[in-house]
Amino acid sequence: MNERHPACPSPTAPPAAGDSRAAPFDPLVLPRFLLSAATSSSSPPAARAVSALHAAGLKLGALPSSLPASNALISAYSHAGLLPSALRAFSLLSHPSNASYTTVLSALARHGRPHEAVSLFAAASASVGALAPDAELLSCLVSCCRRASAFLPARAAHAYGVKNLAAMAFYASAGPALVALYAGYGKVGAARTVFGRMDSKDVVSWNSMIGGFASAGMDGDAWVCFREMRSRGVRGNGRTAVAVLGACDLESGRQVHGTIVSSQGGCSKIVLWNALMSMYSRVGCVADAEQVFLEIERKDIVSWNVMIGAFAKNGYGERALELVDTMVQCSMQPDSLTFTAVLMACCHCGLVDEGLEQFQRFVSVFGLIPTMEQCACVVDLLARAGRFVEALEFVGRMPMRPNAVVWGTLLSASRMHHNVEFARIAFENLVQMEPENAGNFVTMSNIYAKAGMVEDAKRVRTMIDRVELAKPSGQSCVEVV
Question: Where is this region: Disordered (predicted)?
Fold first, then answer.
């Protein structure tokens, strides 16, 4: 199986300063050059091409004087994997436009930093000469808020758009993001209200509603919406398939596979096939997922990660590790999601030493900085195997301060192995980090009781009452959206 992509010809660059072809130069062509450079090749060559075009644009005077070219430069650096360069290019703009903010917010979200995107917008809105965001910028902001779990700023963006923009233009642009936001928070009424103000004949509107329900785990609502779309004669496209596959069981997934996959309008084949793989993995049909994987001619990083994750989630740890080796042999650079999937595979299958080797490999060979989630995986891997001393030593070497998830992982494993010593260490740290979490006290009390340490168990139980951690009684409320 050969996954090497044929080399893509580099885009024709603008002539360098001093070249006989350098004058005249139309700065309007630079955005097209930048976009082509960023998307026509893999990361290292793309980064070099974008940097070269940046230098040429500076020499020719197109940067930073041309705002469209500067916005394209921000986007190009982002697509080429150079977010710091994208942020520097944005910082040099004396008067960034709505398009500039939309571009930089999208760049931050693409690189997993939606919280920073929301903060950047808030700072810009509060400054002198505050922004007057258009529909596209508000749509981008709502998407960032959804990823950052920042509900109130998204609600504020919704209110601003309703008050200041034409309803049709606002909902045509921001409607899909708002539907996904409200559905993700379980606010079905609000999602349906926004959906009702969108074009009912536009498949994008239906896709947002179906996808919003599916991502919120509301599979039944997603299927009702999908059937309603079809009954109204709205023709689905590839993105419809991607959205509804997230709500499929095996039978309905095979139906989607057999009917909608052949129509790929509005969605690239690779995205559709990746969604199919994910669906088959979720319902435990690893062989079907692998068959789809093998049929993809030009796999992207998502394809590899989904298949590695499918092996990991379904107990095929060694096959997941083998696929990582194949991935590297095919010149595909693993990313942070690959890192997490590999560690999950080792955790699920008890491959302790292999997991430690993979952790070291991803850090030292691939140059990835481990996240808190990945460190927690290693702690879980060691502690579940009863290797508590190594687990605690690893916690001490973590590149960041361990959070409650890490200590909670250690506490859970200590309970499984009836290890009071390390349970006490984890518990003491958890009390400092989240003193209001009654579950930690209950777990520690149960560990003491299981070990026959009745007085210690009673002492921890009394701590719950002393700091008023008893579980509150249920309450109901009505929220107007």
Answer: 1-21
Distance CA 277, CA 314 (A): 13
pLDDT averaged over the chain? 84
DSSP H helices, 330-453, are 336-349, 352-364, 372-384, 388-397, 404-417, 420-433, 438-450
- Model pLDDT, residue 87: 93
**Is 72 part of any domain?**
yes
Place of tokens 């309007």: 28
Domain that holds residue 422: 371-469
Which range (53-57, 210-214, 285-289, 304-308) has the least confidence? 53-57
Q: Pull the structure tokens for residue 241.
A: 């398939």
Please report the pLDDT score of residue 261 as a whole number. 59
Q: Is residue 424 part of a domain?
A: yes
The pLDDT tens digits of the residues spanning 80-94 come to 888 899 999 999 888
Domain boundary among 84, 110, 136: 110
Q: What is the Cα–Cα distance from 33 to 25, expressed in whole angstroms?
A: 13
Residue 413 sits in a domain whose CATH number is 1.25.40.10
Mean pLDDT of 293-311: 92
| Burial class of 127 by CB neighbour count within 10 A (0 to 12, 13 to 18, 19+) | exposed
Structure token pair of residue 128: 């002198």
Q: Is residue 37 part of a domain?
A: yes
DSSP letter string over 247-303? T--HHHHHHHHHHTTT--TTS-HHHHHHHHHHHHHHTT-HHHHHHHHHH-SS--HHH
Alpha-carbon distance of 37 to 253, in angstroms, equals: 37
